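> example.struct
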């Protein structure tokens, strides 16, 4: 029998307006009635712990119950993180200064912490010789708050530039990563990173999944900033699916460069995997990490590590044409059914 108290709390947390808007949009897309979609969305919320975005991104309206159970919904994702990652240790990943310091051997770029205590002379020395730099808030995700600056923004008055950035909030300022020409050939406007998720599981340890995230004209490759993603074959480093974005658009070729998606090979793939497998043991209290890896001409380096990985990218419907989602991959590492 359903837990009535749980259902009442769940109903109170639901964004009914967004659910209705999603049902209306999906009705126009699929021809299914809004009433049917709302009922199915509510059923998925109760039975599979799926939010309205999960329902939309994974196209759960086209799946039977067996298939729906293989989707990594918000509730399942949250349960995995709660089980695997001790919140007392998240700061090693959530604070960009701590991350860069902890994994200094795999950062491969100059950076400086920016706050009211930053030495003006050290900041001026940091900027010396740079043509571009990135301002990154100390905490945050999905590329929010990251700003790219050019030499003309600070040339002639580095102190005014420092005060300008300081007014934007505590952050790190980093040298821009120059990606491998092969990766730039996919999309030159952003550093196209590979998200490699590692797990120190109860059943098994290693890499759960990998996706390449590709920009679409903006500085960031993040899917929340209009980017797209495609699955990477773990053995070969070759893209084995079309790319897709959060709006449900599918790309066989990149719209800016016409680069084919399927068959694209990630350079330094073995080195990228080895780097992540080594790093996953540095903070063993955080057992499930999604590493964002840039590929340069000299090899892979870390952009950041995520202690609360987004579950959006690993459930794009276009990556699972047979309707079987990514949860079976997680089940190789941990008992997923125990988390439901």
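> example.seq
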């Amino acid at each position: 029998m359903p837990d009535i108290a749980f259902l009442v709390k769940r109903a109170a947390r639901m964004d009914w307006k967004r659910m209705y808007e999603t049902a209306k949009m999906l009705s126009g897309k699929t021809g299914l009635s809004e009433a049917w979609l709302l009922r199915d969305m509510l059923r998925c919320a109760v039975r599979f712990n799926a939010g309205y975005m999960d329902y939309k991104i994974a196209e759960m309206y086209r799946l039977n119950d067996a298939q729906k159970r293989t989707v990594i919904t918000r509730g399942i994702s949250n349960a995995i993180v709660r089980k695997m990652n001790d919140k007392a240790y998240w700061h090693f990943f959530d604070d960009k200064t701590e991350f860069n310091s902890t994994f200094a051997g795999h950062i491969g770029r100059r950076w400086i912490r920016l706050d009211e205590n930053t030495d003006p002379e050290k900041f001026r020395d940091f900027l010396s010789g740079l043509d571009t730099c990135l301002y990154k808030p100390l905490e945050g995700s999905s590329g929010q708050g990251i700003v790219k600056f050019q030499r003309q923004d600070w040339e002639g008055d580095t102190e005014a530039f420092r005060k300008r950035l300081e007014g934007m909030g505590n952050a790190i300022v980093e040298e821009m990563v120059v990606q491998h020409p092969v990766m730039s050939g996919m999309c030159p406007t952003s550093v196209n990173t590979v998200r490699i998720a590692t797990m120190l599981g109860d059943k098994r340890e290693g890499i759960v999944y990998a996706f390449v995230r590709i920009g679409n004209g903006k500085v960031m490759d993040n899917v929340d900033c209009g980017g797209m993603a495609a699955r990477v074959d773990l053995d070969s480093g070759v893209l084995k699916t079309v790319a897709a974005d959060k709006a449900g658009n599918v790309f066989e070729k990149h719209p800016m460069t016409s680069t084919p998606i399927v068959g694209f090979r990630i350079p330094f793939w073995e080195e990228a995997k080895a780097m992540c497998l080594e790093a996953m043991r540095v903070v063993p209290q955080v057992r499930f990490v999604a590493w964002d890896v840039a590929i340069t001409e000299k090899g892979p380096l870390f952009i950041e590590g995520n202690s609360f990985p987004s579950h959006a990218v690993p459930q794009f419907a276009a990556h699972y044409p047979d309707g079987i989602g990514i949860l079976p991959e997680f089940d190789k590492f941990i008992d997923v059914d125990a988390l439901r």
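> remarks
The first strand starts at residue 111 and ends at 114.
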